TrEMBL record:
Pfam family, one: Nitroreductase
Flavoprotein recorded as keyword: yes
Superkingdom of the organism of origin: Archaea
Domain Nitroreductase per the UniProt entry, residue ranges: 10-80
Molecular functions per Gene Ontology: oxidoreductase activity
Protein name (database record): Nitroreductase family protein
UniProt keyword Cell membrane present: no
Taxonomic lineage of the native organism: Archaea, Thermoproteota, Thermoprotei, Desulfurococcales, Desulfurococcaceae
Annotated InterPro entries: Nitroreductase (IPR029479), Nitroreductase-like (IPR000415), Nitroreductase/BluB (IPR050627)
Keywords (A to Z) from UniProt: Flavoprotein, FMN, Oxidoreductase
Organism: Thermosphaera chiliense
């Protein structure tokens, strides 16, 4: 078993502070291209990605979304959407899988990002980016070159989160 595969997964951190350096569109598109390979129910691929570089639009998103301060110094934002029509039952999961693939791919390019929750202000977000009502904004990513190196936060032990066969059946190692 190779630890090389686990390393990017374990080293990814939420980056909220960015350097004042431009982000090449090619790197963002490379990450989106990778995200296309995320799994989806029935291979519906109901996701869409909106790359936002216009400063006024990024600032407008920061005004309507809670906990979105990192957007204010991000060079790029990417909104991940999922179509309720294309995948009526699993659009939220499908879109979330694509968003996670995207985030990990950004990390692999050397870019930093933080996920910003968008489910409180759905209509305002959709209107701001001109997306139809049949889409759900899964998440917004503030993106830039990392201006910080956060340390890993403590994680719950396996014994608290893993059960054998039935909920509540303790994991014995």
């Amino acid at each position: 078993m190779s630890n090389a595969c686990f390393e990017p997964l374990l080293k990814r951190r939420s980056i909220r502070v960015f350097k004042d350096e431009e982000v090449p569109l090619e790197l963002v598109l490379k990450a989106i291209d990778t995200a296309r390979y995320a799994p989806s129910a029935g291979n519906k691929q109901p996701w869409r990605f909106i790359v936002i570089r216009e400063r006024s639009r990024i600032e407008a998103l920061a005004k309507i979304l809670r906990y979105s301060k990192p957007l204010l110094n991000a060079k790029v934002a990417v909104l991940v959407l999922a179509s309720k029509d294309e995948s009526p039952v699993s659009h939220m999961v499908d879109g979330s899988l694509a968003a996670m693939y995207f985030w990990l791919a950004l990390h692999c390019t050397g870019l930093g990002a933080v996920w910003i929750q968008t489910l409180r202000n759905v209509n305002e977000v959709l209107e701001l980016v001109g997306a139809p009502e049949n889409y759900v904004p899964i998440g917004l990513f503030a993106i830039g070159w990392p201006g910080e190196q956060p340390v890993a936060k403590e994680r719950k032990p396996l014994s608290e989160i893993v059960f054998l066969e039935r909920f509540g059946e303790a994991l014995k190692q």
